[in-house]
Amino acid sequence: MKRSLVLVLSLLLNVALLAAGGWYLSERGARPIAEDLGIVEERRPAYDVYASERFTELEGEPTVLIGDSQIERGPWSEVLDTPVAVRGQGGMLIAEVTATVPDTVPGDAARVIVWAGSNDALHERTPAEAGEDMAELLAAVEVAAPGAEIVVLSLPPLEWVDVTDTNTALETATEGAGATWVDVTPALDGLLTDDGVHLTGQGYEAVAEALRTP
Predict the structure, then answer these.
(1) CA distance 164 to 55
(2) Measured between alpha carbons, how far is 209 from 48 in angstroms, rounded to an integer?
């Protein structure tokens, strides 16, 4: 009798645990649980939503900088000697920058500086794919701010991947859009931080000088 009671209680406990597990799975979702357990990599955030949350209703400045962490990390107002609107977000691919344009580029912007593509190169997107995405990004900027001067910066000399072909594709897309291409790659040699991706302070000074040079 006692043994039967233990078996019944054990069965009820297992049923309760299964029910609780099913409820947790339905409430949380399989993907987040797998991410928590390290079974799959974390999903990339929805950058267009982030842009809406971070940048909507800010007053902005005539010069707007959009792109990835190369933009987000920069001391731009200091090195350019003028207030600018920094609208970069780390980790973004070129296509993800495009999704943020309605929230980052105001219609009255006078100059839009674009720096994106490092993550595309690091994530092994082909130069052709990066070029196509850049063309779409520049088209979106043109729609958002029809009168703005659009400037595109070349990728820095990343230590982990050769950016030569990607830069060529980005330059072609830039010229096709009638935007201005500024090649900063040679000037940034030796001016990356220890991670081999991001710029030192001197690196940002070099970029600012390139932007000031006609």
Answers:
(1) 33
(2) 31
Residue that is written with structure tokens 């357990």 in the block: 37
Chain length of the chain: 214
**Does 24 lie in the same domain as 71?**
no
CA distance 93 to 121: 9
Same domain membership, residue 104 and residue 56: yes
Indicate the pTM of the whole model.
0.78
Contact 98, 141 (CB under 8 A): no
| Residue range of the domain that includes 94 | 47-212
65-108 pLDDT, tens per residue? 999 999 999 999 999 999 999 999 888 999 999 999 998 999 99
Residues 6+ apart with CB under 8 A from 22: none
Residues of the chain with pLDDT under 70: 1-9, 14, 16-17, 19-45, 214
Element (H, E) at 80: helix 76-80
